[in-house]
Each structure stands twice: as structure tokens, then as C-alpha cells.
Design a protein that fits this description.
The structure is a single chain. The protein is an alpha+beta fold. It has a single domain, classed as Electron Transport, Fmn-binding Protein, Chain A (Pnp Oxidase, Chain A). It has five helices and 15 strands. The strands form two sheets. Strands 8, 9, 10, 11, 12, 13, 14 and 15 form an eight-stranded antiparallel beta sheet that branches. A hairpin with a 5-residue loop joins β6 and β7.
């Protein structure tokens, strides 16, 4: 059996299986999961990561709060020396709340996404550090995702000097945050679930749709439509098992980041689903802590196509 043909046992935990069962795809996912979710990277994915100027990470801090964040660098700052390890060479930002969850031995979720081609690959694993900002992720799960709902953006042409600005911490949405969310066509969400044996599975995923697809309700609660996808239900399954979630919204023209940590819930059967065109279910997110980091992403993108579908 070659490395590319090797697959682990069923990758699904009870939360994911519960959502798959509700969607009527349990048997199909039981067959597909072990074939497409590997415990190592195939060569195609290894090469893909090497060409990226940024990566999305999901990490859990010592208090159990989960955060989504962005790390950027010149292409090559991500490197896979073998199918089992991905190196991340990028300076840490002490103002990033996710940094506390990237200690040696921590579980981490990673999403590589190319906004110019709509290609994305996922990798979940364990952080290994030997000192300094560089770290490795030892692969536990590696798999590709379809390009649905990703907006094509032009750029970035170059890596800018990072902005060393103190973070702004809040516990509610201000007008700037509301405007960013209301105009967003893209954000990323980090979630996690803990197994009975203490093993932790962290995931970070892309969410996209038409501008305004995320609705802001009373008490700053966000409602997010869940459209038809690959039926893995990694995010919703994690929320079913553990309501903690972390969101990050990017201002692609300024590089500002809005990171939020809070609680989420999945809505599988509610009349409200009909008010979101194309949605199959909904989920809600109540932010507890918000961190705005001005110019935290040293990349700028121009333009955005309508969200594509595979």
C-alpha cells in the first residue's frame, strides 16, 4: 500500500455523526470519510501549502476559549518536509489571542486557502515547538474541500510591513464591527471537540455567501446560514459536541482583523431557515470577547467575484 493510498479509520465523532444523521447522509459519510480524510498529506497538498501567502489557524487558549486567526508570510513560509509535518515560519503577534493556544502539544486546526483560485485544503493536528516563532503541525487529519461559496479576490501583490498596534478589546459590537460583519462575504470559524480519551480535535473552516449573509440580531447574536456542502459537518458537529466557537472577519482592504470568541448553537429545524435563501439549516453565535487588531494582516486584496459553486 502506498502512502497516498493509506487512510485512517472513521474520522467522525458523535457530534458530526448526529448532524449527518439529521441530514440523512450517515451511511454515505461512513463510506466516504475514511477514503478522503487521511492521516498524512498527499503530495498535491504539500505543494499547495508552499505557495500560499497566508494560512488560517484555529487554536484553544488555556481557558478553553477557541480563536480563529491569520498567519502570513512570503510564499514558502509554509513547508511540508514530509507527508506528516507542516512547518509554519511566521512571527507571532503577542496581541493575537490565539497565540496562547499554539503551545507545544496543543491541538490546532489549519486551513490553507487560495483566494485567487478558490482552492482550499484542511489540516488538523498537534503543534510541536523547539523554541522561537517557528512551529510544526504533526498531521492527524488532512483533506481537501470543494470551492463552493469562496469569493475570488485579486492579489496580494506583496507582503507589507506589519502594523504594531495595540489590540482593542471589547465585549460587544461597536459600529465599526457591525459595519464589517454586515458587509462581509467571507469569514472563518474555529471550533473543537474533546474525545472521551482526552484527545482534542480542532477545526477551522471558511464561510462565505452574498454580502450581508450574516445577520446581526438582538444582544449582538449573529445568525449564519448553512448552505449545501460536503456533508462532513465538521463545524456544526463540533458545535453540537461543544458550543464554544471563535470567528474572525477580515477587512481585505485594510488588513484589520476582528476576532471573536463566544458560544454557538445549531438550529436544525426552525421556520427562520426559510428567510435565508438557499440555507438548509442555521447556526447562531453569541460573542463574549472581541479583539480588533488594526492592520494585523500584512496583505491586501482587491475585488471580489460573486460566490462560486462547484
Amino acid at each position: 500500500m502506498s502512502l497516498s493510498d493509506h487512510h485512517p479509520a472513521s474520522p467522525w465523532h458523535p457530534g458530526e455523526i448526529a448532524i449527518q444523521n439529521h441530514a440523512g447522509v450517515t451511511e454515505r459519510m461512513a463510506e466516504i470519510g475514511p477514503r478522503v480524510i487521511r492521516d498524512r498529506m498527499i503530495d498535491q497538498h504539500r505543494d499547495f501549502f508552499r505557495h500560499l501567502p497566508f494560512v488560517v489557524l484555529g487554536a484553544v487558549d488555556p481557558k478553553g476559549e477557541v480563536w480563529a486567526t491569520i498567519r502570513a508570510g512570503e510564499p514558502g513560509f509554509l513547508d511540508a518536509p514530509d507527508p506528516f509535518r507542516l512547518r509554519v515560519r511566521s512571527a507571532a503577534d503577542p496581541h493575537d489571542p490565539a497565540e496562547a493556544g499554539l503551545a507545544d502539544g496543543s491541538a490546532v486546526g489549519l486551513l490553507g486557502i487560495d483566494l485567487t483560485t478558490r482552492r482550499r485544503n484542511r489540516l488538523n493536528g498537534i503543534v510541536r515547538r523547539e523554541g522561537g516563532d517557528e512551529f510544526e503541525v504533526r498531521v492527524q487529519q488532512s483533506f481537501g474541500n470543494c470551492p463552493q461559496y469562496i469569493r475570488v479576490r485579486q492579489g496580494p501583490e506583496r507582503l507589507l510591513d506589519p502594523v504594531a498596534a495595540a489590540p482593542e478589546i471589547a465585549h460587544g459590537l461597536d459600529d465599526r464591527a457591525r459595519a464589517l460583519i454586515a458587509g462581509a462575504d467571507t469569514f472563518f470559524v474555529a471550533t473543537y471537540a474533546d474525545g472521551e480519551e482526552g484527545n482534542r480535535q480542532v477545526d477551522v473552516s471558511h464561510r462565505g455567501g452574498p454580502k450581508g449573509f450574516v445577520r446581526i440580531g438582538e444582544n449582538d447574536v449573529l445568525t449564519v446560514p448553512d448552505y449545501s456542502g460536503n456533508r462532513f459537518f465538521n463545524t456544526l458537529g463540533n458545535i453540537r459536541a461543544n458550543p464554544r466557537a471563535g470567528l474572525v472577519f477580515i477587512d481585505f482592504t485594510s488588513g484589520d482583523l476582528l476576532q471573536m470568541s463566544g458560544r454557538a448553537e445549531v438550529l436544525l429545524d426552525t421556520p427562520e431557515i426559510a428567510s435565508f435563501p438557499g440555507a438548509e439549516r442555521l447556526w447562531r453565535f453569541a460573542p463574549r470577547t472581541l479583539v480588533r487588531r488594526v492592520g494585523a494582516v500584512p496583505l491586501r486584496f482587491e475585488g471580489a467575484s460573486p460566490p462560486g459553486r462547484a
